[in-house]
């Protein structure tokens, strides 16, 4: 999700918003905790330690749930609804492609081979929902085809990550528009 976070920060900066206001409240730190844990898991995978993979779905749910603090504290209800619709659409798209491909999500890595994030035999080392993509894959455009070098995403995954972008960007926007005469009203 770091990509969605960085894109949200970049978009906010381009709009002239002060990103540092987000870090003056404790509300962002549970999200950052789960993000760091996710990155630790990614680094472990790159070192052939797959012990965390079995917990990845649960970790992702806790990560997304940690946004409840931002939603309530900064009244981001509309953003949460739009973001939740994105999660719903992404989940449906992922479910469709998994169903038509025998209960597995085909992955088409490219850059990840160069970064060392994925090796050909990684798909056989661990039992999970992902398999290496082939010519027999159905609905290839919905599979994991967007390789960032440290993750391979599907269109559904991108929709799910849009939630993170929407929540962070709109929270930063809210904090900037509700700043009281330069005084820091958001220190808890």
From TrEMBL:
InterPro entries: DUF5317
Membrane spanning residue stretches: 21-40, 52-72, 77-98, 149-169
Species annotation: Clostridium cellulovorans (strain ATCC 35296 / DSM 3052 / OCM 3 / 743B)
One Pfam family of this chain: DUF5317
Protein name as annotated: DUF5317 domain-containing protein
Keyword annotations from UniProtKB, A to Z: Membrane, Transmembrane, Transmembrane helix
């Amino acid at each position: 999700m770091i990509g969605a976070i960085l894109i949200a920060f970049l978009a906010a900066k381009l709009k002239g918003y002060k990103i540092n206001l987000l870090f003056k409240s404790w509300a962002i730190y549970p999200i950052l905790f789960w993000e760091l844990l996710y990155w630790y898991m990614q680094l472990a995978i790159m070192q052939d330690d797959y012990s965390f993979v079995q917990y990845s779905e649960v970790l992702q749910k806790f990560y997304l749930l940690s946004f409840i603090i931002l939603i309530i504290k900064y009244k981001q209800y509309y953003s949460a609804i739009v973001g939740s619709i994105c999660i719903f659409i992404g989940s449906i798209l992922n479910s469709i492609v998994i169903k038509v491909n025998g209960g597995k999500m085909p992955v088409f890595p490219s850059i990840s081979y160069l970064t060392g994030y994925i090796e050909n035999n990684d798909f056989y080392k661990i039992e999970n929902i992902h398999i290496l993509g082939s010519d027999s894959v159905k609905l290839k455009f919905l599979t994991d085809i967007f390789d960032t070098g440290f993750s391979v995403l599907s269109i559904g995954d991108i929709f799910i990550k849009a939630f993170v972008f929407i929540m962070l960007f709109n929270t930063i926007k809210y904090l900037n528009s509700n700043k009281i005469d330069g005084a820091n009203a958001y220190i808890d």
